[in-house]
């Protein structure tokens, strides 16, 4: 039995390797899209209390591996309640229902752009981080104790998750391809998300445009370092979720967003990092720009016409996403299957396609679970080359 499961892992790894190599696999690989919070709820756990102990998340990952017919493990865990609690985080806070949310905050004043540009690492360490984490803003030795706890908690948590993921992949025959995983940001998004806020950044590109440009260039090396997880065999992966671009005018995107984002992707590819980009909202306006990125990147689209994406990008990039999560709440089984056929028939020909939803399931109530399970089973039978 164990040998059969290991063989299944190897077969599923081969599906992804073929897609990455531009070869047509035996069938379309199927990704599960589930946030750690949704997995915990699906496993019957209370976010307000049991989210603080990593053993419950690992148990929820195993429950998902058992119950969902996917080729990957598919439970994404990047936000940890116990970590944010220890450090007194302001930028990720727990709501009354236990879900961790990212409020609109600004940890930098417009007058501080010059300091950020001159010494980005020192400014982030000395000024921004204590503003985001209240425990690090306390007098020594309390701040040092909190920092030590924070580092220990982070690496202990990630170590447990990494080891458990590989064990679960082998136990249930899931793909364990990928190696080291990282997440980084487009420099413009990093400044908007954590330093200036959405509204603050949109004012800054009008009031201090030159400083915004310079700040993106100053932050770029840190974003490259954060995301570079490649190996000589190109096993490491990096996710880049793109936030602000769809809400910008094209001339602003071209000036402020695109130059440093393009450099970021190019430099990550040079380190043998597999780059996966989440095109949040609708990137149709920017497909000609995306075309300029290095070949082989994976593009997950939330909205847009699959035919247009396939025509403009399908020969150069791996495409995934597009399947509307909302259908798993409102559609009938026939409608759900018909939509899957439609998307697969457009995107699967020629390879370079991985089936997935257009976004992750954040809460278990976002979908009807039995419909999602039925969808995954249907795709496995239908999407065969």
Automatic annotation (TrEMBL):
It comes from the Bacteria. GO terms for biological process: porphyrin-containing compound biosynthetic process. Residues 183-382 form the Uroporphyrinogen decarboxylase (URO-D) domain. This is Uroporphyrinogen decarboxylase (URO-D) domain-containing protein. One of its GO terms (molecular function) is uroporphyrinogen decarboxylase activity.
């Amino acid at each position: 039995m164990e040998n059969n499961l290991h063989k299944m892992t190897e077969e599923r790894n081969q599906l992804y390797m073929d897609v990455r190599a531009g070869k047509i696999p035996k069938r379309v690989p199927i990704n599960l899209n589930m946030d750690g919070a949704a997995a915990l709820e699906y496993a019957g756990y209370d976010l307000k209390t049991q989210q603080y102990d990593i053993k419950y998340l690992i148990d929820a990952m195993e429950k998902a591996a058992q119950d969902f017919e996917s080729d990957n493990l598919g439970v994404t865990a990047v936000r940890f309640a116990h970590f944010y609690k220890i450090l007194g985080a302001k930028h990720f806070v727990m709501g009354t229902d236990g879900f961790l949310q990212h409020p609109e905050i600004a940890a930098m004043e417009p007058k501080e752009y010059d300091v950020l540009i001159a010494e980005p690492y020192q400014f982030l360490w000395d000024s921004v981080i204590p503003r985001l984490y209240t425990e690090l803003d306390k007098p020594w030795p309390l701040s040092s104790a909190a920092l030590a706890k924070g580092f220990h908690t982070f690496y202990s948590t990630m170590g447990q998750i990494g080891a458990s993921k590989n064990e679960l992949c082998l136990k249930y025959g899931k793909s364990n391809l990928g190696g080291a995983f990282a997440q980084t940001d487009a420099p413009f998004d990093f400044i908007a998300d954590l330093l200036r806020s959405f509204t603050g950044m949109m004012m800054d590109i009008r009031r201090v445009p030159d400083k915004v440009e310079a700040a993106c260039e100053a932050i770029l090396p840190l974003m490259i370092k954060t995301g570079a997880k490649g190996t000589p065999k190109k096993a490491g992966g990096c996710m880049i979720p793109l936030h602000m671009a769809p809400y910008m005018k094209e001339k602003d995107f071209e000036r402020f967003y695109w130059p440093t984002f393009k450099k970021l992707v190019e430099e990550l590819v040079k380190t043998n990092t597999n780059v996966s980009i989440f095109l949040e909202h609708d990137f149709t306006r920017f497909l000609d720009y995306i075309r300029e990125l290095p070949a082989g990147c994976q593009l997950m689209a939330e909205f847009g016409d699959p035919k247009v994406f396939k025509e403009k990008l399908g020969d150069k990039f791996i495409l995934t996403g597009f399947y509307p999560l909302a259908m798993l709440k409102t559609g009938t089984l026939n409608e759900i299957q018909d939509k899957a056929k439609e998307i697969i028939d457009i995107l699967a020909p020629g390879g370079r396609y991985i089936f997935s939803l257009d976004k992750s399931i954040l809460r278990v109530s976002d979908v009807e679970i039995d419909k999602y399970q039925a969808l995954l089973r249907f795709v496995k039978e239908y999407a065969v080359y």
